[in-house]
From TrEMBL:
<feature type="domain" description="HTH lysR-type">
    <location>
        <begin position="1"/>
        <end position="59"/>
    </location>
</feature>
<keyword id="KW-0804">Transcription</keyword>
<dbReference type="InterPro" id="IPR000847">
    <property type="entry name" value="LysR_HTH_N"/>
</dbReference>
<dbReference type="InterPro" id="IPR058163">
    <property type="entry name" value="LysR-type_TF_proteobact-type"/>
</dbReference>
<dbReference type="Pfam" id="PF03466">
    <property type="entry name" value="LysR_substrate"/>
</dbReference>
<keyword id="KW-0805">Transcription regulation</keyword>
<comment type="function">
    <text>NodD regulates the expression of the nodABCFE genes which encode other nodulation proteins. NodD is also a negative regulator of its own expression. Binds flavonoids as inducers.</text>
</comment>
<dbReference type="InterPro" id="IPR036388">
    <property type="entry name" value="WH-like_DNA-bd_sf"/>
</dbReference>
<dbReference type="InterPro" id="IPR005119">
    <property type="entry name" value="LysR_subst-bd"/>
</dbReference>
<dbReference type="InterPro" id="IPR036390">
    <property type="entry name" value="WH_DNA-bd_sf"/>
</dbReference>
<dbReference type="Pfam" id="PF00126">
    <property type="entry name" value="HTH_1"/>
</dbReference>
<comment type="similarity">
    <text>Belongs to the LysR transcriptional regulatory family.</text>
</comment>
<keyword id="KW-0238">DNA-binding</keyword>
<protein>
    <submittedName>
        <fullName>LysR family transcriptional regulator</fullName>
    </submittedName>
</protein>
Length: 309
């Protein structure tokens, strides 16, 4: 544990008169304060507080250490402030990973704004539907659509991706219109191969959750390709908002099973767990958070996919 944290816990405890007062001021739990004091006592080889069930009394050694500890903390805080005030502008190469289809639709205006704000940074954009290993690929920050598995990555929620079950009027013409999710078994479905399980689509209605088994002639791992296959009348597909919205507005696509909803998927920015981020990664993450409303769907346009990314 950082010795500065231990010294700060010690000073706040002596000044506040209790572990609980120090914990409240530092915004951490009382057991953490106790642990830091114990580590400091082990470091110094002496007891700093006499503890009873009702009181906490500093020892003579604690009083001798107190002023020096305050000076150390003051110098440390001054050093940190001077660094923060003189924080360097972002430079170098920022390597980011974005889902292919989502990135084509949303990311370039944000990246253009970032490059204008920080011309010393070169942005290396990796478009992929895969959940790549950020550390192995040297990626500082990535966007991911879908529910995250447990990992050492740090995640920042940015928004949600709405999804729609759609088909063209040409495909639906002359075929029995699906009334329930089970009816999809008799239709050609365009399957997103990276969704697990790919051949099971889940729906929600007033009657609860429904899971339908689907199949079809086309399996793809890119939402833009799913849109193209759908527009060629090859079957029913679950498309993300950005792939479905224009076709729904123009009438080139129709909602299928409008009484059944498809859960939206979360959108996160993720980055490796570390004690600090580079200025270029931090500034880009801040811009993503500021522009997160661009990823939101207007209520009048939303209904309900899945993210090919």
């Amino acid at each position: 544990m950082d010795r500065i944290d231990c010294l700060r816990a010690f000073v706040r405890t002596l000044e506040g008169g209790s572990f609980s007062a120090a914990a409240k001021e530092l915004g951490i739990g009382q057991p953490a304060i106790s642990k830091r004091i114990a580590m400091l006592e082990s470091e110094f080889g002496t007891q700093l507080f006499l503890r009873t069930t009702r009181t906490l009394k500093p020892t003579a050694e604690a009083h001798r250490i107190y002023e020096l500890a305050r000076q150390i903390l003051g110098s440390f805080d001054m050093a940190r402030s001077s660094v923060e005030e003189a924080a360097p502008r972002p430079t170098g190469t920022l390597r980011i990973g974005v889902p292919s289809s989502f990135g084509r639709r949303y990311m370039m205006p944000i990246i253009a704004e970032y490059v204008r704000n920080y011309p010393e940074v070169r942005v290396d954009i990796r478009f992929s539907e895969r959940f790549v290993n950020l550390v192995e690929e040297g990626i500082e920050l990535a966007l991911r659509i879908g529910h995250l598995e447990a990992s050492t990555l740090v995640a920042r929620r940015l928004g949600t991706v709405q999804r729609h079950l759609v088909a063209t009027p040409t495909y639906l013409h002359g075929r029995p219109l699906p009334r329930t999710p089970d009816d999809l078994g008799s239709h050609q479905c365009i399957v997103y191969s990276r969704m697990s399980p790919a051949h099971q689509w889940a729906f929600e209605s007033e009657h609860g959750r429904h899971v339908a088994s689907v199949n079809g002639p086309i399996h793809v791992d890119d939402a833009d390709a799913m849109q193209e296959a759908t527009m060629h009348h090859l079957g029913i597909a679950i498309l993300p908002e950005w792939n479905a919205a224009d076709g729904l507005r123009s009438g080139e696509l129709e909602h299928v099973l409008p009484d059944y909803g498809i859960a939206a998927l979360p959108l996160h920015a993720v980055y490796p767990e570390t004690h600090w981020m580079t200025p270029r990664a931090r500034s880009f993450l801040n811009l993503l958070v500021e522009r997160a409303e661009h990823f939101a769907v207007a209520p009048s346009e939303s209904t309900g996919i899945h993210a090919g990314g």
